[in-house]
Structures are given as structure tokens and as C-alpha cells.
Amino acid sequence: MSEGAQTSANTAVIRRSQEHAVFAGGIIVAFAIITLAASIYHNAGGALFGPTFEPRAISVLLGAVGIAVMLRRVTIRNEQDFYGGIALVGLAIVALLATADLQGMRGFAFGPATAPRLFAGLLAILGGAVAITGLLTEAPPLERYDLRAPALWSLAYFVFHYATTPVWMWIGVAMYVLGAVLAILGLRDPKRNTMVRGPVFLVISVLVFAEMIRPMGLVATTFVTVMVASAATPEVKWRDSFIWAIALTIFCSLLFPYALALPFMLWPKFWY
Questions:
Q1: pLDDT tens readout for residues 92-107
Q2: What is the DSSP track for 170-199?
Q3: How far apart, in whole angstroms, are the C-alpha atoms of residue 214 and residue 200?
Q4: Where are the domains of the chain?
Q5: Can you tell me the distance from the alpha carbon of 117 to that of 83, in angstroms, rounded to the nearest whole number?
Q6: In degrees rounded to 5, what are phi and psi of residue 164?
Q7: pLDDT tens across 214-247, in order?
Q8: What are the residue ranges of helices labelled H in the chain?
Q9: Could you tell me the pTM of the whole model?
């Protein structure tokens, strides 16, 4: 009797693992297609080895990894490290696309895009290394998360920045609103709060940084971004987060405008 129950439980675990692989692999492939399309659209008629070559190449590799995951051609022993590494690679692609319009190196002088693209490249390498670690080390199964709201907001952000017609703008607005409704409902449900909270506040922190950095300057943006990201865990200690946000703000304020001589505004536009 116990052997039959154990066999049934193992079968259920295997089935869930297979379904999870198909779902996760599908998300990776979809993200790769979107970023590849965005890079091609951005570089339409441009040189092959232009500023969008790196995100195009990484998107192709990411899509191949997603297909391998969907077909279960790879054995993921440590899901947290593997998918975390893939997320870092995805973030690096977004950063490379976002800085494609900025000037790079000019001789030995840093351009506005030099440091961000350098950090994005290092982030992609680090993410790839973490993902490979997930294939080589053992760890408990990944916790379940609700990614619907963050996925809608991420897609809406791309729609807003690449939309050329009012129809697409309204589609982006609808994505934002639907994502907000799903996030609020999830956060108010005690059973689903932990599944929703982490992805929601991490994505919000990224969007906050993207929208605040130009009008509000580096100081306010860095501080608010860190505080919003801190809310991703229910175990947050706000006093520690406040101190950490101040430390990171000081570090970024000294690193980018002074040490790297990048043209970041420190303070909001209305202060000048």
C-alpha cells in the first residue's frame, strides 16, 4: 500500500516537473523572441555588428536554451540558480537594448554607454555562469511564483517604448491595468501573497528606476529603487533597508558621475 502511494507521489512530482519545464522554457523562448525582434527593429538597415549585435546574439542563445528546456534536453538540478541566472541574462539584454542609442567609446574616452554596456556584459557572463551552476549542483525544487503581473508590465514597457500607433499605446495601458489588478488581488490573498510579492516588487523597482532616472536624478532614483526592491520579501527590516539604500545611493553617486565621469544628473531637473 505504501509502495503504491510512494509511486503515485513520484509520478506526480515528475509530471509537475515536466509541466514546469514546458512553461518555463516557453517563457524563456517568448522573451528571447521579443528582445530579438526589438533589437532587429531598432537596428533596421544598420550594420550587422552595430550596437544591437550583442543583445541579438544573446537573445538567440537564450532562445536555444529555452527550447532545450521545453524539450527537456537539459537536466536542471538546481532550479533556483538556473532560472536566476537566466533572469540575469535577460536583464543584461534589456540593459544592452536600452543603451543602444548612447555613444560608446571614443578613442580612450568613455562615452555615456560605455559603463552601462560594460556592466551589462559582465552581468550576462555572470548570469550564464550561475545558470550553468544550476545544471551541475543539486538543490530543492524552485518555489512557485505568480509571474502574470510582472510579465504584463514588462511587455507593456516594451510596447510603450516601441509603439508607433495609438492602438498599441492603448494595448500597453490595458496590460498595465490588468497587471495591477492581478498584483493587488494576489497581494490581498494570504495563500498567494508570497507567490506574488517577490516578482511584483522586483519588477516595480526596475520600472521605477527606468522612469525616474531622467527627471528625478540618480540620488532619489537609487534610494527609491532600493526601498521598493526591499519590499519583495515579507521578512524585510525597513531600518536595515533604509541604511542599505543610503549606502548604495552614496556609492552610485560617487561612482558614475565622478569616478567614471558619466553624464548622470544627481538631482531632479527642477533643482537646476
A1: 898 888 777 766 545 4
A2: HHHHHHHHHHHHHHHHHHH-TTTHHHHHHH
A3: 23
A4: 1-142, 148-272
A5: 22
A6: -120, -5
A7: 889 889 999 999 999 999 888 888 899 999 999 9
A8: 2-42, 53-70, 79-98, 114-136, 148-162, 166-188, 193-230, 238-254
A9: 0.64
